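Please annotate this fold before class:
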Amino acid sequence: PLCAALAPSAAVSFARPSSCATAPSVNCLSVLLSHKRAQYNLGLCRFRKVGGDPRVFKHSLFVSVMGIFKRLSDVVLLPITPAALAELDRYKYSGAEFSLAAKYVLSYFWTFVARFVPKTISPNMVTLCGSIPVMLLYAIVLVRVEHWFPRGAPLDVDIFALFTYFWYQTADNVDGKHAKATNMGSPLGEMFDHGWDTICIGLLTCITAMTLALESNFTLLVLLSVAYFLMHIKGWEQHFTGIMILPAIGGPVDIQLASMSIHLMAILKGEAFWATPIGELADGVPIEFASYTAGWTALGVATVTSLFGVLPFSVYYGLASMKSSRERIVEFLSIPFFLVGSGLLVWWCWISELDPAVHHIKVVWSLCIAINVYVQIRMIAGRLLGMHVDYAPFLSWTPSVLVINAYARQAGMYYVSESSLLWSVFLFAVFANVALIRQVVCACCGHLGLPVLAPFTRPVKAAPKTE
């Protein structure tokens, strides 16, 4: 109908403005997007009257839409250069385990399990097998949940969650030991392992929050932000020290064991245990704290222990490894920028009166996970390729449109539907993750001479050099 209104007597073509200089323009709409070096003229449309096949319009429209996606992908991608890919050949993983539970107890169990893993299975397959129950559990909860469980998660969810935590923790530590035993470790394997860790931690945190009966999207987003902030701090520290240092208290293993204990107590004491006020569970509790539930108390203790067990040491080791005072100031700014970016979504959830509908719960959880996964993948790729730490990845600031829209709604101004805007931001986050992962994987595999998306094809060996 638009084409007929603009040019009722002739076919309409869809072309870039640079090719329309000799023809009279009927309508022109240009969208300019500035990114780093120059302004990209997306050239959405300049309609003109020309004769020809109407299919030309459809083809040009498809080309222009694909051009828009290309420009958007340029915004969310990393500036990978040949010099950065050369750092991939010199990268070597190094870790130091100080966790008391892992060092003196669980390490022997993981070594025992690693002996039974067939040598023909790659470490990445072990990582993937450990992540499958996590994805399945999250899918089951999303299908069943219509609102927050008011008295904690059901018994079958707690049993499955306890098994999933144990399975995921075992696979996450066995894959590294299997890689060392078979000499199959690689930077791509580390990226695959830590990338899946970023996804699984967010999914498992949502399940644990439901068991604790927190009953709030805002509380869940705060809990997710704390979990991902700890991951960001450890990645930031490893970026400068070159060593993955796991602390004695408050590390990943300790947090996983604490989460397993939460689900175990819910199984033994009943699903309403964590929703019971602590004044009913113990005598002598001060009256100002007696109304807090056991879930809130456990959440506070775990958060404080993790932050004080990880944050001071990670910041100290990271700053001590920097070469100059100017580098310390500049690179340290990535931490508050990350907090502001992740805090936008929490702020929006605080000021917005979300209807506790099923689609809102699902999208809010998934959006927070998608944004933090994107930030962590950029951090991991930057560490492997020897690049600088990102101050504020573009995607982490996209929830600002939700904040602006919420204030506009409260002020009685024009605003977009909250559900539509939320879905739009989430789909853009998914697009950004897919584009970034595709870029990093294709660039690294192309540099290493490995086939991409061809699991049954052997790597092509480079031809010998001839003098």
